Amino acid sequence: MNPATDIPAFILGAILGSFVNVVILRLPEKKSIVTPPSACPACGRRLPWHENVPILSFIALLGRCRSCGSAISWQYPLIEAACGMLAVAVLRRFGLSFAAVGYLAFSLALVAIIFIDMRHQIIPDAISLPGIVCGFLLALAPGGIGWESALIGILAGGGSLYAIALSYYLLTRREGMGGGDIKLLAMIGAFLGWQSLPFVVFGSAAAGALFGIGAMLKQGKGGKTVIPYGPFLSLAALVFLFFAPEIMSLGARLILPAGQ
Questions:
Q1: CA torsion, points 181, 187, 192, 196, in degrees to nearest 10?
Q2: DSSP 3-state assignment of 46?
Q3: Phi and psi at residue 96, in whole multiples of 5°?
Q4: What's the pLDDT tens digit per position in 173-230?
Q5: In angstroms, rounded to a whole number, what is the distance separating the alpha carbons of residues 178 and 182?
Q6: What's the CA gap between 220 and 158, in Å, rounded?
Q7: Which residues contact 243 (CB under 8 A, 6 or more apart)?
Q8: Helices first, then strands: H and E counts in the chain
Q9: Cα–Cα distance measured from residue 210 to residue 213, given in angstroms and rounded to the nearest whole number
Q10: Residues whose CB is less than 8 angstroms from the CB of residue 107 and which lie 6 or more positions away in sequence, other chains included
Q11: 0.85 cut: is pTM over it?
């Protein structure tokens, strides 16, 4: 641990996490993420700056609005803390570099997608489509993964999920996967390259299947149980982002015969 870099990175991530909270709450409702300023969702009172400090304000207010006393959701400090930790992880993984800026934005976008998809079962195009472009541009930057890897990642990522969704529809005549998931995997392919796709697809499918079985047993709806797939894709992408060398090394050992 290096406090000289980790603490500023955590503070920056927490501040950005406050903005991620705004995106999560307003974007699905097609509201501006810039105006109006933050306010209590219960009484509508505008929050002064000292009541809007990430994490610390929640603690100082004991989790309640100072005006009306209504409870403040734990989502706010938890997402701020998670984004702070992601900023530290990105800094340790990529150092002070242009890539770190791009991958921090990618990580925070995935956090927003996870919570929006869990709550609304949608993945906004306003995140995934610009994300595809930004991921491809990041690949062109010095030290990037290269335009070939990013382009194949976009085409193979979106194309593979589209093929799965089309096959499922032809077999069942039911929509099994939304277009948002297809665009999300294309964005992941743009940022992480085509090499990430086997792990992201199979890892998210395995986690989603386990969660889906539990949801089916709990809800009692059988095959009609609906679960969002975006959170599993996003979590698998974050795992690959931070552990790509270890994952690729493990994959090579599993594929290649012993001694080769």
A1: 20
A2: strand
A3: -80, 95
A4: 666 566 889 999 999 999 999 999 999 999 998 998 888 777 667 766 655 667 888 9
A5: 7
A6: 32
A7: none
A8: 9, 0
A9: 5
A10: 83, 86, 90, 238, 241
A11: yes
